DNA sequence: CAGTATCCGAATTGATACTG
DNA sequence: CAGTATCAATTCGGATACTG
């Protein structure tokens, strides 16, 4: 890092966003799109759990304290409609539904890990600064 | 990847979060904390721009179409209070204020790039799935 | 079991006008 | 120039009750 200027950031946004960033363009920026998807209240957690093994609906519901069925469904549906999660229905009685990461979803775990490691490494520092500021 | 099970996801959340994830604990999870910070509407964009070179307030304002002074200030203040951005006031007339990434902020560009590359590589696929679902 | 339906409060963002 | 103040609109998320 700090080779002088923008070696790092260049790779962040230089998939031809011109410098004066029109927000219309920016909204279609892949990075923001993905980031905003992944970063709502429950998505990351669900991806992580599904990264371990497939889960049934109520299994997820039980695993995550505070997550209502409404938000669980909503979050899974978005993930599904983005092709990150796969939903399989077993027509048993009572019905059983299994959710698992698609290969695409699984591949996302990798870059997410880089960010996770950064977060783990630097979170204390952030919190410290935050408290000085507070 | 896909060595069998959770090689990837393990590094995501195994800083000792037990499997039944209590949300109280999860809210203090460094990963989510950082993700939620970075992923509001303007933060990533501002970090990216500041990663190129320091900017003055109105320089950022002009650079990002659709960003109101209110949100610009708010976003910068949060970044500052997290120690990712540094604010320097030059007591000229009229006043001039420069924002730049701190070393901590700059170090965040690196993992962000990993995610950015994933996003660039897979965004088309996501969009395609989305449209089939829509 | 696996959801859906409904209602409501909270948080986020935008628009705009004003100030040291 | 670099913000702040105010108000309105939208979106997000929680609680709860109900259904095939």
UniProtKB/TrEMBL annotation, chains A, B:
Swiss-Prot/TrEMBL keywords: DNA-binding, Transcription, Transcription regulation
Coiled-coil residue windows: none
Organism domain of life: Bacteria
Domain HTH hxlR-type: 29-127
PANTHER family linked to this entry: TRANSCRIPTIONAL REGULATOR, MARR FAMILY, TRANSCRIPTIONAL REGULATORY PROTEIN
Protein name: Transcriptional regulator, HxlR family
């Amino acid at each position: 890092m700090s080779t002088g200027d923008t070696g790092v950031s260049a790779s962040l946004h230089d998939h031809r966003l011109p410098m004066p960033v029109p927000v219309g363009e920016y909204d279609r920026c892949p990075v923001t799109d993905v980031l905003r998807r992944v970063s709502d209240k429950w998505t990351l957690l669900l991806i992580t759990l599904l990264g371990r093994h497939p889960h049934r609906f109520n299994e997820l519901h039980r695993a995550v304290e505070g997550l209502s069925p409404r938000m669980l469904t909503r979050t899974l549906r978005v993930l599904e409609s983005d092709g990150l999660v796969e939903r399989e229905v077993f027509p048993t009685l009572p019905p059983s539904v299994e959710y698992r990461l698609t290969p695409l979803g699984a591949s996302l775990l990798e870059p997410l890990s880089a960010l996770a490691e950064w977060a783990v490494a630097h979170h204390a520092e952030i919190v410290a600064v935050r408290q000085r500021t507070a």
